[in-house]
Specification:
The structure is a homodimer. With about 300 residues, the first copy, chain A, is an alpha/beta fold. Chain A is built from 9 helices and 14 strands.
């Protein structure tokens, strides 16, 4: 059962804006989604877009603060919230909130992103996923490996409920480019999911030869009649996910269990790829971003 | 010093057609190149394109046979020359020559491609590179690993002067897609070669994390100010070449020396990537395709 409206949360990413009226636990009371990601908003227009999307709620829920995360806090967003270095926990995110200039400065808070930095560490950055991670973890969880699959998948190592390290994998974007614009795309007959093609791709990814070679198997297996055109899209997906999961597990210290948060059908595919490595998957409930925003808002004293 | 005209050779690939009048060793006496690859020629138009490009030589060098290799022998080409299974040597290629229907059947021979096939082997295919390999090898070489860098790089294992096994890596195509159409492309300031960016990419490729993660370093290193926009294109190239070379060496049985054949500047980059693994590079002279065609033509008794 949902509680009383406590705040307005916004997950404002590169491509999309999702906003909701939420209770104190981050459960959704009202929601809206628009394809008005940061890339679609011209500089100086963020306040106007904010009013357009969230405006009706600002009066109706006059006591509710607004907390936003994602690319809205980047240099190209509404107001830059500098990346916080890892290790990075909920109190750090709460202490790092920034407020956009203009008429909503007193009402809107933007959560900073997180970064891996420092001598001898390969740098990495994220915005929005740091909030999703804290929403995906069980409330009492201290240590975990969290995987957020997507265009740029994140593998996040949490120790003592602090983000210790993370790594981005460009799996989704590479899949999109190869599945649409490569020589492989010409051989594909549709994009319907083919379970045996996907499994064959996962298996191929575990053989020697490297990703750049395995990609060509899409073509070679089809040419020799061992993989129909209708299975190629899923096979490519299996090859890429298989490579990501193998590398992600190693970089995360070979965990026995991974928490998955993301689109349910995508989490299902990652669950299968993890099972190949005898790693258990715990799929987080939907709404990790909003639950994470609630936790940060509470830490910041914005909600009680 | 070049000898007497012995045959006309054509390297007729996916994107380009290169033809030459050659002496018995495959040295070029006259040459022409046109962007009339198989993709640019409509079905049924191959004979006309052939006449258009090579026609003037057919009368002047009336005694010269014509030998062609590459995608011209594919199903989408002039006349299909079925792939020969590996192991595949020069006599097998000579015995597998096919002749296109029409008025040039008695004069034109097309060299078949080669394939890796069979239970338990990951299939792979090539057309044109099998000829290039035999042209790149020293005349008396028996065993070698040959790397042909390009859009679809080939790593070819030669034993007893026979192609035993090979693997295709989609390095060039992935580089093109990511360097032009990905989120990484937006950060790149030009495509001029940057040596330190390239070396940093090679080094990144040797760290743990996998290719899909290393690709994101293009963005992360730039964001944290450790790699300027002008170095990103070369860094991406280094990451991809580094991954290809590491995987190619393993699949080829960890050779101590690799023969490189391809565009000289590309061979230079591969030489550097190989040196990272303490592997020596022998860069073949230009013209491996035409030298290889001469060897096949001689084996087939077409030239003496």
């Amino acid at each position: 059962m949902s509680g009383k409206a406590a705040f307005i949360g916004i997950d404002w990413g590169t491509s999309n804006l999702r906003a909701a009226v939420l209770d104190g636990d981050g459960a959704v009371l009202r929601a809206v989604a628009r394809p008005l990601g940061v890339l679609a908003v011209a500089a100086g227009r963020f306040e106007a877009v904010f009013e357009d999307v969230v405006g009706p709620w600002l009066g109706e829920f006059a006591a509710c603060p607004v907390v936003a995360c994602g690319m809205v806090g980047s240099r190209q967003g509404w107001c830059e919230a500098p990346y916080l270095p890892c290790p990075c926990d909920e109190p750090a995110l709460a202490a790092g909130l920034v407020h956009p200039p203009g008429r909503y400065a007193g009402r809107v808070s933007i959560v900073p992103g997180a970064m891996v930095a420092g001598v001898g560490r390969a740098p990495d950055v994220m915005r929005g996923e740091e909030v999703q991670v804290f929403g995906a973890l069980a409330p009492d969880a201290e240590d975990a490996v969290v995987c957020l699959p997507g265009t740029h998948s994140k593998w996040v190592v949490v120790r003592g409920r602090s983000i210790e390290h993370f790594a981005t994998h460009m799996t989704g974007e590479v899949f999109e480019l190869l599945g649409r614009h490569s020589i492989l795309a010409k051989l594909m007959e549709g994009e319907a999911f083919d379970a045996s093609g996907f499994r064959a791709g996962l298996a191929r990814a575990r053989e020697p030869g490297g990703l750049l070679h395995h990609l060509f198997s899409v073509r070679a297996l089809n040419l020799v009649g061992r993989l129909p055109g209708t299975a190629l899209h899923a096979f490519l997906s299996g090859v890429l996910l298989g490579h990501e999961v193998a590398a992600g597990l190693v970089l995360s210290g070979s965990p026995l269990e991974v928490v998955l948060a993301g689109r349910p059908e995508l989490c299902g595919l990652y669950r299968e790829a993890l099972a190949d490595h005898d790693v258990a998957a715990v799929v987080a409930d939907d709404g990790a971003s909003f639950r994470g925003l609630a936790r940060v808002a509470r830490r910041a004293g914005l909600i009680s």
